[in-house]
User: Fold these one by one.
Assistant:
Number 1:
Amino acid sequence: MREEVQRRISDGCPGRLYRRSPIPMMGTAKKGVAVTEQMPPAVGRRQLLGISISAAGGIAISACGSSPPKPSPGQPGAPSAEEVPVTPPEDLMREHGVLKRVLLIYREGIRRLQTGDQDPTQAVNSGAGIIRSFIEDYHEHLEEQYVFPKLEQAGKLTDITTVLRTQHQRGRVLTDRVLAATTGAAALDQPTRQALVQNMLAFIRMYEPHEAREDTVVFPALRDVVPAKEFRDLAETFEDEEHRRFGQAGFQGVVDKVADIEKSLDIYDLSQFTPT
Ligand SMILES: [Fe+2]
Ligand SMILES: [Fe+2]
């Protein structure tokens, strides 16, 4: 089976073969992915997860372009019944994970601004930039374009989608302010620091319940109102839009940027959050 999967995946891209291991084996590999050659930046979410479960632990994946041709059912290389596609709610929830990590960056920024610890301005500015490009311009665009209308057309959760749309707009105002306060080399005066803290606190306060409600109520309801084929097509639309906006690296590239910001603030090491 393993050889069959390796052959199938590497057929369209000879010379590129990647092996996933449960144990990180190389310093530069991420998420436990040890590479047998140079890992390209273009391993999309669906490419990573759309791999036979039976091959887990010793599989090979490759990426040789943004959208390799998809074989028809029954043809060599066609998806098997064992494959697990990434669904639109899973896509959106992962993006919420990015949002949550930037909220943690904001929290550390607030702590430093309030205590006078090392200046977090650049890190906060970078975090706000990701909120603008990845959350507001991309993720919320998907919600407003493809998710909320489906529910509204079905007459479901319309009271909630109305609030969520308003919160998207208010969030943009707060992000405008955070970006404005943190852009430029000049040190922040005290009123600006206080206003920046208040704007980040307001953003966190709104988005924690916002994303939690979407994860637990809105996204699960999407499955009820969207037919199965349309659901699968939506997944493709999300993936295409992701790579159109964020290039080959897509979601993973954004996660890497978030990790870099966390490292600059010394909040990347997960173990520091474990109670003793
Ligand atoms: Fe939203
Ligand atoms: Fe969202």
Note: The longest strand covers residues 18-19.
Number 2:
Amino acid sequence: MANKEDAEPVTGWPRSLRVNSLFSEDELIEDYYDAPPANGGSGWSDHVPSPRPPVPAFSRSSPGTLGDRMDGTAATPLSPTIKVGWLDKNPPQGSYIYQKRWVKLDADHLRYFDTEKDAYSKRFIPVSSISRIASVGDQKFEVVTNNRNFVFRAESDADRNEWIRTLQQIAEERKSKAPERTSMSLTTNGAADPADKSGFLELRGFKHKLFVAVAGDKVFLYKNAEDYRLGIGITYIEMNVGNVKEVDRRGFDLTTPYRIFSFSADSDQEKEEWVEAMQQSIAEALSNSEVAERIWAVESNRFCADCGSPKPDWASINLCVVICKRCAGEHRGLGPGITKVRSLKMDRKVWTEELIELFHQIGNAVANQFWAANVPPSEAITPASGSQERRRFLIAKYREGKYRRYHPLFGNQEELDRALCAAVTTSDLAETQALLFCGAAVTCATGDPQCPTPLALAEKSGQRLQMEFLLHNKTSETPRLEVGGSEEKPYSVPLPSVTHNGFLYKTPSMAKPVGERKGQEEFSRRWCTLQDGVLSYYENDRNAVPNGEIKVEEIVCLVNNPPHAHGIESTFEVYIESERLYLFGLESPDSAREWLKSIAKSFVHPRAEELLALDFERIGRLHYKGGLNLERAKEGWFALAGSTLHVCFEDSERQEPLQLRKLQELSIQGDNEVLVLVERRRTLYIQGERKLDFLGWVHAIQKAAGSSGHTLAEQQLTESDVPLLVDRCIDYITQCGLTSEGIYRKSGQNSKTTSLLEMLRRDARSVRLKEGEHQVDDVANTLKRFFRDLGDGLFTGRWGQDWLRATALEDEEAKIGEYRRLLGTLPTVNRATLKALINHLFRVQRFSGENQMNTHNLAIVFGPTLFQTDGKDYKAGRVVEDLISHYVKIFNVNDQEMKKQQDEIMAIMKMREAASSGTQQAGDFICTVYLEEKKTEAEQHVKIPATMTAEELTFEILDRRKIVTKEKDYWSCFEVNEREEAERPLHYSEKVLPILHCLGTESYLVVKKQMSMENMLIYLASRVGDCKHGMMKFREERNLLGLGLSTGFHDRYFILNHTCLRLYKEVRSHKPEKEWPVRNLKVYLGIKKKLRPPTCWGFTVFYENEKHEKQQWYLCCDTQADLREWFATFLHVQNGGALWPSETSKVRASRSPQDSRLGNISLIPLRGNESEMRNSVAAFATDPLTLLRNV
Ligand SMILES: [Zn+2]
């Protein structure tokens, strides 16, 4: 298959011709091409489209043979052919043989081809460059340009004369359209427009680089830069049939139905620019010329209102003039307060029927009667005028109104305004124009309360065109001569409707995150404007056609990079909906900030404008789910500033700050699909709707949620402003180390301390310290190391000495007072941390009987650590000793707090006793379990050893409450998921600890009777076979968060056997649509109400495969019995048939006696602390759940 192209030459297009069609034996060109390869030119055939070229949908080419498309009309020429035929062309030097050429003349070019079927010429000569056509005998004629002559020989004198006559006529017509433009003065290239992009490119098959110019809707190929200047080229490609595709780092293909041009640029950046320019050219070629044709229907609109160039395809929609591209560029420089530039061909939306009609009524004729009433010939411009001349003229004409026909009322504001109010009620647009641009105020008071403005008057009078004219001039400035007449500040006019413009550095847009640092050389300087909801970038400040543009409504995110992130001091990134990002840069941080603010203002929704006031590093819109309604994703506006994420939720007017460093959880779910932020009172799910900007957000939020430095305030914090790292260590020591001998004095292992500290510093949130995995001395040492290395110290550099000095105070009360005062001066985080630490040490010394660490010993250890001294200054230790001794007074601890602590200490002591008696298991958790229902009175706190089964837990709870179990009381432990409003009875042999680790904050455990167990056991005992099949109603959701499209419930046929569950579209289906291994399913009873299950007998099923991909779906049965049978079968299959233990007594006998006096003291929270956990649960449960239903 590799040489398929070689094996199948393109039909109807002989290879030699293909090889030759761009080639020429012409002495001017042939040296520049590679000779055809020896194998007959496969160099070309590689990239000739095969077997059929992709014909773009818009091409008018018929899908017939290639021959069809090769004829003159099928090539979708933009200019109709005027004369065509075979001629002999003068031979190149050194040869006497005339060459037969197919010669084609249209209004713009004389071209010749190898054959009549070729789409691309060997040579083109712009008609505008032809100075003379002369007969030179022997049926020959000569086409003279200002630098080269071309001699052709016709077949007869008649034919020759016909060619001469036609050529002369066309050349004359061309001259008359551009009267000032003599062929001798022509120095610009033959393409009428200046190139949008030009330069050298390699073209595959050619030895030398060609000079390529993208201009308007065509791409021109020249032998070299000199030819480009002269305007005489090889061929041009009409881009209405073009298609550009990037091939590799530097290469790209321009594909047309006739040929693929494989170009290669010097760098990938160059390539991007070429691709962009060519795509723009295609857009221009494809643009509807219907508007232009209609505007040009009026004779005066066929030539530029300012310079007289033919076929002007730009316009100023407020001045109602049609202008050429070069003038349009200068118009743009005047700013939209003076002239609003639009393309006739590209800005299709702006061209309403009213506006087109206005251009018929006013247009160049009426406009120039006013604006150009008095133009001295010396100041007029021509199509050949340079840009300086042009700019000077346009400033004089429109900004200063220098050539205006003054209205008789000029200077009399009141009269002007009154006259305007009268004029707008008539059809006299010329009068309105004169009044408006001589000073009448477009928003003047009419004195008519019904119609307070001229616009309202026009509307009342039914003057549509007057209205249209007034609307486009709502913000127009009145022309005025400038004092001092400085002409060198063309862009200094204040432009109220221009949001922003200026030069920016820009790299080509990207589809991937900006990976590495970009050097300055990778940026190009571009003139950028932000106006009318479009951010456009131009080659320079005088180009009319942008190289590209970004519509602000497509912007989804704006990122302010840190200074010097790239080779340019300030850079920012603009992300758009279609997954691309643009990197801009500026040398001045101030200007960069202005750009950022302007762009942000342009795309951020007004309801989120509060965010604009922030010094954001990232701002944009994202979809999120949160609050009580997780059904529908909403759009929110987010801004990240420092470690705070500010959010404007969809349904709220005010922004809400989320302290990222205080998050309880920050995780990514799915395959980078959802970012989960758990705060104390809520959970927020941010969805990755688009990849590019979402990944940026994820990284930025993760970074902002982490520690940013070595001071206390820069750490991840708990809700009470204590660094999470400190909290984690204290918690752990409290749980496992209070009775450990020499705690905080023993040093632990240095390497372990170092790595643990590093881990906690990086992300304390994700670190769970576990007994068995971590040694208490290592953790203790980590805490000390943290304080010792702390930037600015716990007591701060500023106040540290004052604390030390306070120890000298003899009077105890005075000393305590001073400590309290100093405590008040500490920053919040330092104060909270100090309190947490001293509270902890206070508890540690209570166990000094076991751990040998009394207050004095602790002070010796912690003094130098906290004050970061060498230990010789005894005062440091004294401060700590005082703080511990007077803990209650200094920190203002009330009785209730003290009582709570006492209870905790009691509980801990009990537990340690149990531990020393050998029943303690490593990795114990203490967990809240409810009896029968979730309410405070039913709360039990149970230590869960790693080996504990659901059955053991159940009996533990029943024992504590002294509940006597009767026969056929199927007491079980259930896992209840409040969010899903579903529950699952744990199998009696299931280990509880792993379940606890997976429980989210919206789940809990409850022990209650399983009412359906009896019936399930009866069903299982009586059924035949061990499969179940039948119809159920099925509903799928994409993942655990219920994202994606919900499709409602649909009837499906299911078969459950001993290994898998299969879903069939219908009973008769042969192949299952889906199939899941039963062991990977978790089946819960109940379906959340929001999904509107069709019956109340449903399951929620979670599926997770080996790759941890998750799915969630719902099944609904028609009857309770059906549900029971399905559920029993699931349990039966998943647990190898054993639903209920046959000998419960065994378990009970083996259980170790547990201390029931733990009561409801919560010691070790699963996530955050107990009250936080309950709060988050409460946030989800506003209405009484009905999930405790029994099957
Ligand atoms: Zn012009």
Note: Residues 309 and 417 are 36 Å apart (CA to CA).
